[in-house]
């Protein structure tokens, strides 16, 4: 009888821990989807403070042409007006969470210019996030143009 009680208690702990992990994963997914959508809004508003907060110091962005920007370069392009985003809509966002590490995949459509050149295309993006001191920071970002058929 004692063994049965111990087994039932252990099973309860295991299933309780699994349920807690699933709830934490769902919370992380929701938070990251929110951050991804706020990203587009922050580009439209040229909210450099937002990017200073959510981009890790080691952040690297690889654009569709294969050019790599650091966090400093990305923010400088926003500040200077070299990158202007008029609208940005994200959808088809999928998040894979691995504890304090996550990868987001999605589609972005909108209107934007880079140094006066129209770069308004539908894009697929992959963002890599790390949770530090209780908050998520993007450390890597890659974007590809979706080919038009």
Description of the molecule:
The chain is built from three helices and seven strands; from the N terminus they run ααββαβββββ. It has 149 residues and is of the alpha+beta class. The protein has a single domain, classed as Nuclear Transport Factor 2, Chain: A (Roll). Helix 1 runs antiparallel to helix 2. The longest helix has 44 residues. It is elongated.
| Molecular shape | elongated
Structural class: alpha+beta
Terminal CA distance: 68 Å
Relative helix content: 40-55%
Please state the second-level CATH architecture. Roll
Domain count: 1
Q: List SSEs in N-to-C order.
A: HHEEHEEEEE
Number of strands: 7
State the assembly state of the protein chains.
single chain
Largest sheet: 7 strands, mixed
Q: Might you state the CATH topology name?
A: Nuclear Transport Factor 2, Chain: A
> In CATH, what is the class?
Alpha Beta
Number of helices: 3
Percent range for β-strand residues: 35-45%
Rg calc: 20 Å
List the helices and strands and how they pair.
Blueprint: H1 2-45, H2 48-54, E1 55-62, E2 68-70, H3 71-80, E3 83-97, E4 101-114, E5 117-118, E6 123-132, E7 135-145
Parallel strand pairs: 1-7
Antiparallel strand pairs: 1-2, 3-4, 4-5, 4-6, 6-7
Task: Sum this structure up briefly.
The chain is an alpha+beta fold and 149 residues long.
Q: Keywords, please?
A:
149 residues; alpha+beta; seven-stranded mixed sheet
């Amino acid at each position: 009888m004692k063994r049965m009680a111990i087994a039932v208690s252990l099973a309860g702990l295991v299933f309780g821990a699994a349920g807690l992990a699933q709830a934490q994963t769902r919370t992380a997914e929701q938070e990251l989807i929110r951050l991804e959508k706020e990203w587009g809004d922050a580009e439209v508003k040229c909210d450099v403070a937002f990017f200073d907060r959510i981009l890790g110091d080691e952040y690297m962005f690889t654009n569709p042409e294969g050019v790599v920007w650091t966090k400093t370069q990305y923010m400088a392009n926003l500040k200077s007006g070299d990158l202007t985003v008029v609208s940005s809509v994200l959808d088809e966002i999928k998040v894979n969470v691995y504890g304090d590490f996550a990868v987001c995949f999605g589609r972005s459509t909108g209107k934007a210019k880079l140094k006066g050149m129209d770069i308004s295309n539908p894009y697929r993006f992959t963002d890599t996030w790390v949770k530090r001191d209780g908050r998520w920071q993007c450390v890597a970002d890659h974007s590809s143009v979706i080919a038009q058929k």
